[in-house]
Write a structure and sequence with these properties.
TIM Barrel, 16% strand, 249 residues, alpha/beta, 8-stranded parallel barrel
Length: 249
């Protein structure tokens, strides 16, 4: 699969900064618009029950914004046993990414486990499909788990890439990349689409995409928004697109 990887920008960090003051700045929808204007192919959010960053009104406002961009995708990620399904039912995004995070977890740190999680995930995956929403499961890089993710009804998996980010630039990089590549091949063989995300940045992105086959989408938030504080949204998005182009050159 040689299709160029799409970039979906996670705007959670913009919302987190906004929520520190009650003045509505910086604008979450404004940031998303600038990223789309610069060439991002999608917008990702991860609304949490405590609304520490994305709030309920952001979900609807971003869904309205994305209607102006028919070729861009709206990806809403989160725990389907917390508040995610309410968001999915209300706006029907293009993709729902199921993440097994806890209420008080600062950020995602592990994927789903099979067969343990299969029975409770299946009806929610079925509901998303009935709403016309694609489902991606947040997964650790375990090749043997890919067939099980497909069997439960997932359309895609999002590979949790923190272990790669930690290994990048160290002697462990090659071995960790091989694990991700093996997992990607197992996912593709099972009939799954492939996404990736977590701690990917301008330094490590191209190496990852060169080594891991078939990645359709990367979701990048913290690093890209941090870069945008120095470069601006447009320049940051363009530089991440440059990294993707380098991987596909």
């Amino acid at each position: 699969m040689n299709t160029r990887t799409h970039l979906s920008v996670n705007v959670n960090l913009v919302a987190y900064v906004r929520n520190r003051r009650d003045v509505g700045l910086p604008s979450v929808t404004g940031a998303a618009r600038l990223c789309l204007l610069a060439g991002a192919q999608g917008i990702t959010i991860h609304p949490r029950p405590d609304e520490r960053h994305i709030r309920a009104h952001d979900v609807g406002e971003l869904a309205t914004l994305l209607k102006e961009w028919p070729r861009a995708e709206f990806n809403i990620e989160g725990n389907p046993f917390h508040n995610l399904m309410d968001c999915i039912r209300s706006v029907r995004p293009h993709q729902a990414t199921f993440v097994p995070d806890s209420m008080d977890q600062p950020t995602s740190d592990h994927g789903w486990s099979f067969p343990d999680d299969a029975a409770r995930l299946r009806p929610l995956i079925d509901e998303c499909h009935a709403l016309g929403v694609r489902v991606s499961l947040f997964m650790d890089p375990v090749p043997a788990a890919m067939a099980a993710a497909r069997a439960v009804g997932a359309d895609r998996v999002e590979l949790y890439t923190e272990s790669y980010a930690r290994a990048w630039g160290t002697p462990r990089q090659g071995a960790v990349l091989r694990q991700f590549a093996d997992t990607a091949r197992a996912a593709l063989e099972a009939g799954l689409g492939l996404n990736a995300g977590h701690d990917l940045n301008r330094d490590n992105l191209a190496d990852f995409l060169r080594a891991v086959p078939g990645v359709q989408e990367v979701s990048i938030g913290h690093a890209l928004i941090s870069d945008a504080l120095e470069l601006g949204y447009a320049a940051a998005v363009r530089d991440y697109q440059r990294c993707i182009d380098e991987a596909f050159a």
